[in-house]
Target: Granulocyte colony-stimulating factor receptor
Amino acid sequence: MQPGLEQCGHILLSAPIVRLGDQVTASCFITRNCSHLGTDWRVVWKLEPELHPRERRQHLPNGTLQSTITLPHLNHSRVLLSCCLHWGNSLQILDQAELQAGYPPTAPYNLSCIMNLTTNSLICQWEPGPDTHLSTSFTLKSFKSQDKCQTQKDSIPDCVPEVGQSHCSIPRKHLQLYQNMSIWVQARNALGTSASPKLCLAPMDVVKLEPPTLWALEPSPAVVPPQPGCLRLRWETWRPSLYIEQKCELRHQPRLGEAGWDLVSALPARTSQYELCGLLPSTAYTLQMRCTRWRLPGHWSEWSPSLELTTAQRAPIVRLDTWWRQRQLDPQTVTVQLFWKPIALEEDSGQIQGYLVSWRPSDQAGAEPTLCDTTELNCTFQLPSEAREVVLKAYNTAGTSHPTPVVFLESRGPPLGRLHTTARDPHSLWVGWEPPSPQPQGYVIEWGLSPPSPNGSPMTWRMEHNGSIAGTLLQENIRPFQLYEITVTPLYQDTKGPSQHIYAYSQEMAPSHGPELHLRHIGKTWAQLEWVPEAPELGKSPLTHYTIFWTNTQDQSFSTVLNASTHSFVLRGLEPSSLYHVQLMAASQVWAANSTSLTLMTLTLEESELHILLGLFGLLVLLICLCGAAQFCCRPSRKYSLWPSVPDPARSSLGSWVPTITAEDILQLPSLRDPGMPPITKITVLEEEEKKPGPWESNDSSGPGSLSTLVQAYVLQGDPRVPSAQPQPQPGNSDQVLYVQVLGSPTGPGPGHYLRCDSTQPLLEGLSPSPKSYENLWFQTSSPGTPEPLVPHPEDDSIFEPLLDFPLLQGLRSLCDRRVQQSQEDDPPPSMLLKDYQNVPGIEKVDDVVKRLISLEMANKKEMLKIKKEQLMSKVVENPKDTSSLEAQIVALSVKIRSYEEHMQKHRKDKAHKRYLLMSIDKRQKMLKNLRKTNYPVFEKTCKELGIEYTLPPPYHRKIHRRLATKKALCIRVFQEVQKLKKQKRALKTAAAAAQKQGQRNPESPSEARSEAIKETQ
Model:
């Protein structure tokens, strides 16, 4: 601030604090002390960074200058207003004033209070409402009352919470626990005051007790232990609340699993122990309890600390399916191998700790001797030959299951019918049979490796209790390319049928090699081949077809597919005296195998046959020449066949759209290499639309240094004032062309102009529209090092250079070079094998013809996209097998986006793919935003490798409107009124019910009972 300006002026506000959006008027008084400034100064108002030059001036009688400004809408909650003096080249501040804007406080709501016996105080809390943008203070007010809070008896000191808090505590010394008191919250700021609805309550009616403490009830010899599925527990209430009658609730849930809480309510109030039943046996449970006042109002306490107890076990309740094998050791001893499987009969059937197998001879009494005590599902023991039955039991610490008798039946039943198997997949087998007559009660199916494995693993078995079925699916312990022995035994009443066996492979193997190929006969243009098929092998998939491949010396490949029953074939259409390589491939449903290669050479032509062919060829050439000459001579437009038919833009309708070229506008070319060359007045560029190559295709015909054949240019030289002698195009000429006319003067100060015309004449018809933003590869993001399209600079005199320096041609040439370079760098070599065949053993020994069929050269678009995705995955993602990370999903989306862009280049009117493209780009943008927030180094690497230019989205700001705030306040007020009406209705309903109940008990004084009930509900 300049010296002498401290007391030069001051600001006077109409109101320092106003409602948000209201009008504010400020006046700046400049005294006579500023007279030394001269006349070259003016008053400027500044509201934070913005200047407000519009102000009203008024000279007061005492010589003071008054500058007044009116702000129609103050939309800042706190802003600094400055009165400045623009003197010379500087802006000096004379005085500053702070403006505040906000809203009056809304009434606080959701006021609730709790009497805490631990702190011996009444704690109240509330919701302060929306922000007022001003400093707002809250005060908890209350007074004592004997009636229903209608009249005030004794006042209670106000409770002021700390700044930013919405709760406050009234100490015990200001309370009467059983007397009603009225409580409300008052909010105040500079714009007004509001109060919440009053709350009428007695402190003891809102008391909140402390939770009880749970304990496990200790067992004693005099008490019977709990049943399985029951728990016994006790609890201790909080000591300060022993004089309060309470009721409690208990909840429990299993410690393991995802089961929710189960609630047990209405526990006995005066007892301190409880037996909880109906639980799962041998299961750990978590228990919690809470309490509240009984028969009087109050709040529930918090849930008590958890108590973990485990229920007792119960004896197993299972059914045991059994099966056995017997082997005779000697005439008096039999070795029995017993198998069993437990089947649970109930959901909580109990845990099994072991199994007992016992046998009691028929001539002995007493305890049964134990043959096996095991935790496995099988047992091997020896019995006398006359033994026909043993007993099997499952046991745990709680007892044993019901005994299961195992009777060793004899095979006297009818056998099964035809047994057959089918391999559904490499890990399952379907076994079927024809049910015998009479129908069995069930079946026992056994399966295992054949021959058995060296480690002696037992066979897998299963019992089917449905005797009407004719097959079952085996999925347990099935591995591919293995031979399994399957045994099926029917079960009848008191007997069984003979076992039936069958062998099957879970998955058949491919043939090891193809049949050997032989040459039987050969001619000049044909060759007869034959082969001997291989004998069928066990476990090998049968052949489905043959494929013959033959290749000539020019690497031209041919193939044909034959049935599996064919053993010979004749190759026709061969060239005489030519060498061929022939190979036979035998294929099955699983795989294919190649035979040895056969090289043959066809016979040569005889001399007479050669003369006949040469004569016929000469006649054919002569006939073609005669037809061509006749067509050339009879063509009406043959006079235009020796020079191009170039359209003249000056003779079209475009000539009336551009200004007339005067004599002074003739272009002079002093910078050209040839000074004798006449001035160039028109440059016409002819374009022929051609199918654009896709991003996965490569163009071998154009190198990086060659100009694309899409563009052909002609330079028309001459004086523009001289009428052009160029012939007009024929009406039938429908070639699609564009032309550009260069206008300007080499001596003028401005650059030349390029005028492009989209004429509807036959010369210019069929122009394709400009590509969309997602179709124009010119403006797409390119990788680093890729040349960008050339844009002509206004000061560049490239129009006076040779034709190759024309900007359009340079851009097209750069675009073609870039596409070729990207295609050559990104695409894998065509000779690369498909991924499914790269790791196949012996693939390097396969013939070149077969390799070509399974290479990328013959691959479809889906496989190419898959390979491209894997290449980008290896560059961006650390673990290529990780497909769930953000960078992996971005790579997959980028490959899909490039495929959509290629499709849109060919089909510009495909709206569905356009929508897919835009949706994919938007989804990738969201993923990039998330990746940038979570892992910035990976984000940079992903954008760099994929060539993505990421732009941050603009932040979203929602402007606060007074109408929205007013509407929200009205909705809150309506909600409060509705809740208040509902509360009054509930109170009246409760009072009526209490009065009716009291009247039934004491009919003499129903009015007194009703008044007491209403008072109790309040």
Observations:
- Residues 217 and 990 are 41 Å apart (CA to CA).
- Residues 652-804, 819-824, 1012-1018 have pLDDT under 50 and may be disordered.
- The chain has ten helices and 53 strands.
- The radius of gyration is 50 Å.
